[in-house]
């Protein structure tokens, strides 16, 4: 059974926190929902959840992003999370669960990150030269609420060929701020995919996917930046990142 998502209007990342307003969004909820400050899942972490890091030198100043993918190393069975590389500010990555949204939990730490040619964490040869991706090693015992995108869509395949997403293909993203939004592909290039769909600050790292009729999804990329003038979002392909680290996207399991 797919997990419900609890969206918190005022999260524990807001310094002047007053009252927590909680909205329960069921699996059957329509894709278009109001923007929120935070998304957490019951019992653990899932693709589409909010993640955060304290900014260097900031007193309770947190940078928030979206966890895009949960991936596994088939040889060691260790789990990793993939977000946008520019989300890496150093230090532990935090998350929360829906049952205790105001309680910080440690998800893990970045072991590799790159932001469009600049290495932030790890060796230069760990990730593709041109990407915006960060890989988080999960802390031991991190509970998994779901491997499915947004707790809804099992990952059937990972797309890596531009021919799979030609102009006009409908794709979707699931961000921790704006939820699921969908729109057509404008262009699929060597390193990036540009789609006309809505994202907002905090959705960085959100998974890009193509939905299938059987309820699964084909994973494509992770959100990097938005062009407000053209109302388009740029995503980087996820396949080169998975291949570089010999990881496999999780999503076909029971949860």
From TrEMBL:
<keyword id="KW-0614">Plasmid</keyword>
<dbReference type="InterPro" id="IPR043504">
    <property type="entry name" value="Peptidase_S1_PA_chymotrypsin"/>
</dbReference>
<protein>
    <recommendedName>
        <fullName>Trypsin</fullName>
    </recommendedName>
</protein>
<dbReference type="InterPro" id="IPR009003">
    <property type="entry name" value="Peptidase_S1_PA"/>
</dbReference>
